[in-house]
Write a structure and sequence with these properties.
With 72 residues, this protein is α+β, with helices and mostly antiparallel strands. Helices cover 18% and strands 17% of the residues.
């Protein structure tokens, strides 16, 4: 499995078939048949924990870019 933080976007998880994903109370989230999923980082998705593209509408700034800008 590989997790990649996309620039100003979601977390891309490849190899998701090997991933066990649960919600806040431990209920499994079905990933059957999905090798790649995109997990929301902006908090605005209406399909949490998955990305629905809202980050492009709210001007989400990825954490790494925000930290680097602050430290400059």
């Amino acid at each position: 499995m590989e997790i990649t933080a996309l620039e100003n976007g979601p977390l891309k998880v490849t190899g998701a078939g090997d991933l066990a994903l649960t919600d806040y109370d431990g209920t499994p989230i079905d990933l059957e048949g999905k090798d790649t999923v995109f997990l929301c980082r902006c908090g605005g998705s209406t399909n949490k924990p998955f990305c629905d593209g809202t980050h492009t509408k709210v001007g989400f700034d990825g954490a790494r870019a925000a930290v680097e800008a602050k430290d400059a």
